[in-house]
Amino acid sequence: MMAQILDGTAIARALRTRVASEVADFVGTTGIVPGLATVLVGEDPASQVYVRNKRQSAVAAGIRDLHRHVDADVDQETIAAIITELAHNDAVSGILLQLPLPGRLDSKRLINLIPPMKDVDGLTTLSAGLLARSEPGLRPCTPSGIMSLIDATGIDLDGADAVVIGRSELVGGPMARMLLDRNTTVTTAHSHTRDLAAVTMSADVLVVAAGVPGLIGAEHVKSGAVVIDVGIHHSENGLVGDVRFDEASKYAGWITPVPGGVGPMTIATLLENTLIAARMQAARPV
Ligand SMILES: Nc1nc(=O)c2c([nH]1)NC[C@@H]1CN(c3ccc(C(=O)N[C@@H](CCC(=O)O)C(=O)O)cc3)C=[N+]21
Ligand SMILES: [Mg+2]
C-alpha cells in the first residue's frame, strides 16, 4: 500500500480562497481593511523568500501589506521602536517579526512588544500561556496549519496516539499542546530521546519537527499512520524534509510532501490569523 499524499498546496489554496471571501465580507460590513505588518531584519535569503510569499499571499487575500525592512546591523532599541509604532498603528491588524533574528538581538523581548490581539504568529508569552491553559487566543501558524492538514484526512483524533518530534516554541511545543486539546495521547520526543523508533512506532499521528534531514524512515512509521514532515532543508536533490519520503510513504496512510506540505499551510494560516485579529480589534480596539 502506498500512502495518500496530503496535498498542502491544494488544501492551503482552499483555505486562502475561504479567507479571501471572508475578508471581502469583513471589509463590506465594517469598512476596515485588515493589514499585515511583516518585519524583516537583514538579508537572509530563505527569510526573504518566506516574507515575500507571505506578503504576496496577503495581498491576494485582500489584506493590506505593510512591510518594514531593516538593516542587519539594526540595534535593539530601533527595532523595538518599529514594533511599538506598529502596535499603535490602527492600519495594522497583525504583526509578524520574521525569525531568526541576528543573535545579538533579544528576540523574546521584541516579540513580547506585540499586543496579544495583533500576535498573528502566536509567539508572545501571553499567547503561549493562553494555549497552555486552553483559553481562546491566536495560535502559532505552523502547528495550526498542521491541525488543518490532519483534519483534512478525516481521521478521528479522539483517543489516538500522537507523537511530536521536537519541542521548539515555534512548532513542537504548541503542536503537542494543540493535539492534547483534541484528546489525543501525546508523546514529545526530542534529541535526547533514547529509542526514537520505539516511541514513534505506536504513533497514529507522527509530526516530525526535528530539523534533521532524513531522520525518519521505514523503521519509525506505524502502518497507516498520518506522517507530517515539518523539516525543510536544501540539498543537492533540491528541498528535502526530516522524513525519508520514499521509505515512509510505503507504510504511512497519509504523508505530507516537501515542498508542498506544511509550508503553504503556514502561510494560509497566517492570513486566517490576520482576519481573526482584525475581527477582535473591530470588536474591542487595542
Ligand atoms: N516569525 C516567524 N514566523 C514563521 O512562521 C516563520 C519564521 N518566523 N521563520 C521561519 C519559519 C519557516 N516558515 C516557512 C513558511 C513557509 C514555507 C513555505 O512556503 N515553503 C514552501 C517552499 C518554499 C521554498 O521554495 O523554499 C513549501 O514547503 O512548499 C516554509 C517555511 C515560516 N517561519
Ligand atoms: Mg529539538
TrEMBL record:
What Pfam family is a match for this entry? THF_DHG_CYH_C
Q: Which reaction does it catalyse?
A: (6R)-5,10-methenyltetrahydrofolate + H2O = (6R)-10-formyltetrahydrofolate + H(+); (6R)-5,10-methylene-5,6,7,8-tetrahydrofolate + NADP(+) = (6R)-5,10-methenyltetrahydrofolate + NADPH
Which InterPro entries does the record cross-reference, listed alphabetically? Aminoacid_DH-like_N_sf (IPR046346), NAD(P)-bd_dom_sf (IPR036291), THF_DH/CycHdrlase (IPR000672), THF_DH/CycHdrlase_cat_dom (IPR020630), THF_DH/CycHdrlase_CS (IPR020867), THF_DH/CycHdrlase_NAD-bd_dom (IPR020631)
- Origin, by domain of life? Bacteria
Q: How does it assemble?
A: Homodimer.
What protein family does this chain belong to? Belongs to the tetrahydrofolate dehydrogenase/cyclohydrolase family.
Q: What's this protein's name?
A: Bifunctional protein FolD
Gene expressing this chain: folD
